[in-house]
From TrEMBL:
InterPro entries the UniProt entry points to: ECF_trnsprt_substrate-spec (IPR024529)
Coiled-coil boundaries: none
Bilayer-crossing regions: 9-29, 35-56, 63-86, 92-112, 124-146, 177-195
Organism: Granulicatella seriolae
Protein name (database record): ECF transporter S component
Pfam family, one: ECF_trnsprt
Record's keyword terms, sorted: Membrane, Transmembrane, Transmembrane helix
Length: 201
Protein backbone atom coordinates (compact mmCIF):
# COMPACT_ATOMS: atom_id res chain seq x y z
CA UNK A 1 0.00 0.00 0.00
CA UNK A 2 2.81 2.41 0.84
CA UNK A 3 4.46 1.73 -2.50
CA UNK A 4 1.24 2.50 -4.39
CA UNK A 5 0.71 5.65 -2.33
CA UNK A 6 4.26 6.78 -3.02
CA UNK A 7 3.84 6.18 -6.75
CA UNK A 8 0.58 8.11 -6.69
CA UNK A 9 2.25 11.03 -4.94
CA UNK A 10 4.98 11.15 -7.56
CA UNK A 11 2.37 10.99 -10.32
CA UNK A 12 0.45 13.86 -8.73
CA UNK A 13 3.62 15.95 -8.52
CA UNK A 14 4.30 15.27 -12.19
CA UNK A 15 0.76 16.36 -13.06
CA UNK A 16 1.08 19.53 -10.98
CA UNK A 17 4.39 20.33 -12.69
CA UNK A 18 2.74 19.72 -16.08
CA UNK A 19 -0.17 22.02 -15.26
CA UNK A 20 2.25 24.68 -13.99
CA UNK A 21 4.25 24.49 -17.22
CA UNK A 22 1.09 24.91 -19.28
CA UNK A 23 0.00 27.90 -17.19
CA UNK A 24 3.38 29.60 -17.65
CA UNK A 25 3.31 29.01 -21.41
CA UNK A 26 -0.28 30.26 -21.65
CA UNK A 27 0.60 33.37 -19.66
CA UNK A 28 3.56 34.53 -21.69
CA UNK A 29 3.02 33.24 -25.24
CA UNK A 30 0.68 35.66 -27.06
CA UNK A 31 -2.79 34.28 -27.88
CA UNK A 32 -2.05 30.92 -26.23
CA UNK A 33 -3.78 31.84 -22.98
CA UNK A 34 -4.91 35.45 -23.39
CA UNK A 35 -6.66 37.19 -26.27
CA UNK A 36 -5.96 40.92 -25.75
CA UNK A 37 -8.85 43.34 -26.22
CA UNK A 38 -9.05 47.10 -25.66
CA UNK A 39 -10.64 46.96 -22.22
CA UNK A 40 -9.66 43.56 -20.82
CA UNK A 41 -8.18 40.29 -22.07
CA UNK A 42 -10.26 37.19 -22.75
CA UNK A 43 -8.47 34.34 -20.98
CA UNK A 44 -8.55 30.57 -21.23
CA UNK A 45 -5.90 29.98 -18.55
CA UNK A 46 -8.63 29.47 -15.98
CA UNK A 47 -9.56 26.22 -17.75
CA UNK A 48 -6.12 24.78 -16.96
CA UNK A 49 -6.39 25.85 -13.31
CA UNK A 50 -9.91 24.47 -12.92
CA UNK A 51 -8.92 21.14 -14.50
CA UNK A 52 -6.00 20.83 -12.11
CA UNK A 53 -8.25 21.58 -9.14
CA UNK A 54 -10.80 18.98 -10.25
CA UNK A 55 -8.25 16.25 -10.91
CA UNK A 56 -5.86 16.90 -8.00
CA UNK A 57 -8.01 18.64 -5.37
CA UNK A 58 -8.28 22.09 -3.79
CA UNK A 59 -4.70 22.28 -2.48
CA UNK A 60 -3.28 21.66 -5.93
CA UNK A 61 -5.85 24.11 -7.27
CA UNK A 62 -4.57 26.72 -4.85
CA UNK A 63 -0.99 26.16 -6.08
CA UNK A 64 -2.05 26.43 -9.73
CA UNK A 65 -4.23 29.47 -9.08
CA UNK A 66 -1.37 31.18 -7.26
CA UNK A 67 0.95 30.47 -10.18
CA UNK A 68 -1.60 31.94 -12.58
CA UNK A 69 -1.93 35.05 -10.44
CA UNK A 70 1.82 35.56 -10.17
CA UNK A 71 2.16 35.13 -13.95
CA UNK A 72 -0.59 37.73 -14.47
CA UNK A 73 1.23 40.09 -12.10
CA UNK A 74 4.56 39.68 -13.92
CA UNK A 75 2.98 39.84 -17.37
CA UNK A 76 1.32 43.16 -16.54
CA UNK A 77 4.72 44.86 -16.36
CA UNK A 78 5.76 43.61 -19.79
CA UNK A 79 2.49 43.53 -21.77
CA UNK A 80 2.70 47.13 -22.96
CA UNK A 81 -0.97 47.62 -22.06
CA UNK A 82 -1.81 50.65 -19.93
CA UNK A 83 -4.93 48.86 -18.65
CA UNK A 84 -2.95 45.78 -17.56
CA UNK A 85 -0.31 47.99 -15.97
CA UNK A 86 -2.99 49.78 -13.96
CA UNK A 87 -4.98 46.71 -12.95
CA UNK A 88 -2.78 43.66 -12.71
CA UNK A 89 0.29 45.23 -11.10
CA UNK A 90 -1.90 45.26 -7.99
CA UNK A 91 -1.38 41.82 -6.39
CA UNK A 92 -4.80 41.92 -4.72
CA UNK A 93 -6.44 42.03 -8.16
CA UNK A 94 -3.91 39.87 -10.00
CA UNK A 95 -3.29 37.08 -7.51
CA UNK A 96 -6.01 36.69 -4.87
CA UNK A 97 -8.96 35.96 -7.21
CA UNK A 98 -6.91 33.36 -9.09
CA UNK A 99 -5.89 31.65 -5.85
CA UNK A 100 -9.57 31.52 -4.87
CA UNK A 101 -10.59 30.12 -8.28
CA UNK A 102 -8.20 27.18 -7.92
CA UNK A 103 -9.05 26.41 -4.31
CA UNK A 104 -12.83 26.84 -4.58
CA UNK A 105 -13.07 24.90 -7.84
CA UNK A 106 -11.49 21.92 -6.10
CA UNK A 107 -13.82 22.25 -3.10
CA UNK A 108 -16.95 22.63 -5.23
CA UNK A 109 -16.07 19.58 -7.32
CA UNK A 110 -15.47 17.50 -4.21
CA UNK A 111 -18.88 18.59 -2.89
CA UNK A 112 -20.62 17.77 -6.20
CA UNK A 113 -18.86 14.39 -6.32
CA UNK A 114 -20.79 13.41 -3.18
CA UNK A 115 -24.11 14.02 -4.91
CA UNK A 116 -25.91 12.03 -7.63
CA UNK A 117 -24.84 14.48 -10.32
CA UNK A 118 -22.88 12.77 -13.11
CA UNK A 119 -19.11 13.50 -13.02
CA UNK A 120 -19.19 15.07 -16.51
CA UNK A 121 -21.91 17.51 -15.50
CA UNK A 122 -20.14 18.24 -12.22
CA UNK A 123 -16.98 19.13 -14.15
CA UNK A 124 -18.96 21.34 -16.52
CA UNK A 125 -20.65 23.17 -13.63
CA UNK A 126 -17.33 23.69 -11.85
CA UNK A 127 -15.83 24.99 -15.09
CA UNK A 128 -18.58 27.57 -15.46
CA UNK A 129 -18.45 28.45 -11.76
CA UNK A 130 -14.68 28.97 -11.69
CA UNK A 131 -14.74 31.05 -14.84
CA UNK A 132 -17.57 33.35 -13.72
CA UNK A 133 -16.10 33.61 -10.22
CA UNK A 134 -12.83 34.85 -11.70
CA UNK A 135 -14.52 37.40 -13.97
CA UNK A 136 -16.87 38.79 -11.34
CA UNK A 137 -14.24 38.92 -8.60
CA UNK A 138 -11.61 40.63 -10.77
CA UNK A 139 -14.09 43.21 -12.11
CA UNK A 140 -15.43 43.88 -8.60
CA UNK A 141 -11.91 44.48 -7.28
CA UNK A 142 -11.18 46.75 -10.23
CA UNK A 143 -14.20 48.86 -9.30
CA UNK A 144 -13.41 49.10 -5.60
CA UNK A 145 -9.61 49.45 -5.81
CA UNK A 146 -8.80 51.33 -9.02
CA UNK A 147 -12.27 52.39 -10.21
CA UNK A 148 -11.63 56.11 -10.88
CA UNK A 149 -8.28 55.49 -12.59
CA UNK A 150 -9.75 52.65 -14.65
CA UNK A 151 -12.68 54.79 -15.77
CA UNK A 152 -10.31 57.59 -16.76
CA UNK A 153 -8.09 55.14 -18.64
CA UNK A 154 -10.97 53.92 -20.82
CA UNK A 155 -12.34 57.43 -21.32
CA UNK A 156 -15.40 57.05 -19.14
CA UNK A 157 -16.66 58.26 -15.77
CA UNK A 158 -16.92 56.48 -12.44
CA UNK A 159 -20.73 56.81 -12.63
CA UNK A 160 -20.82 54.80 -15.85
CA UNK A 161 -18.27 52.23 -14.71
CA UNK A 162 -20.71 49.72 -13.12
CA UNK A 163 -22.58 49.46 -16.41
CA UNK A 164 -19.35 49.03 -18.36
CA UNK A 165 -18.15 46.29 -16.01
CA UNK A 166 -21.50 44.50 -16.20
CA UNK A 167 -21.22 44.62 -19.98
CA UNK A 168 -17.80 42.99 -19.68
CA UNK A 169 -19.37 40.18 -17.66
CA UNK A 170 -21.62 39.53 -20.63
CA UNK A 171 -19.09 40.00 -23.44
CA UNK A 172 -16.05 38.40 -21.75
CA UNK A 173 -17.25 36.45 -18.73
CA UNK A 174 -20.17 34.56 -20.28
CA UNK A 175 -18.24 33.31 -23.37
CA UNK A 176 -15.36 32.25 -21.08
CA UNK A 177 -17.81 30.40 -18.82
CA UNK A 178 -19.47 28.66 -21.79
CA UNK A 179 -16.06 27.60 -23.11
CA UNK A 180 -15.11 26.23 -19.67
CA UNK A 181 -18.48 24.43 -19.38
CA UNK A 182 -17.79 22.60 -22.64
CA UNK A 183 -14.01 22.04 -22.51
CA UNK A 184 -13.47 21.12 -18.84
CA UNK A 185 -15.49 17.85 -18.87
CA UNK A 186 -14.02 16.77 -22.23
CA UNK A 187 -10.44 17.01 -21.00
CA UNK A 188 -11.32 16.23 -17.39
CA UNK A 189 -12.80 12.82 -18.22
CA UNK A 190 -9.62 11.83 -20.05
CA UNK A 191 -7.43 12.93 -17.13
CA UNK A 192 -9.69 11.18 -14.61
CA UNK A 193 -9.37 7.95 -16.58
CA UNK A 194 -5.59 8.32 -16.55
CA UNK A 195 -5.70 8.80 -12.78
CA UNK A 196 -7.85 5.68 -12.34
CA UNK A 197 -5.57 3.61 -14.55
CA UNK A 198 -2.59 4.80 -12.54
CA UNK A 199 -4.15 3.85 -9.19
CA UNK A 200 -4.88 0.31 -10.44
CA UNK A 201 -1.19 -0.38 -11.06
Amino acid sequence: MEKKSSKMSVFQLVLIATFLSIIILQSFIPFLGNIPLFVLDITIIHITVILGAIILGPRAGLILGTAWGICSFIRAFTSGSAISLLVFTNPVIAILPRMAVGFLSGLVYQALAKTKIRPSLSMALVGAFGSLFNTITVLSLIYFIVGPQYAQQIGSSIDMLPGILMTLVGTNGVPEAIAAFIIVPIIGNVLMQLMKNRTRK
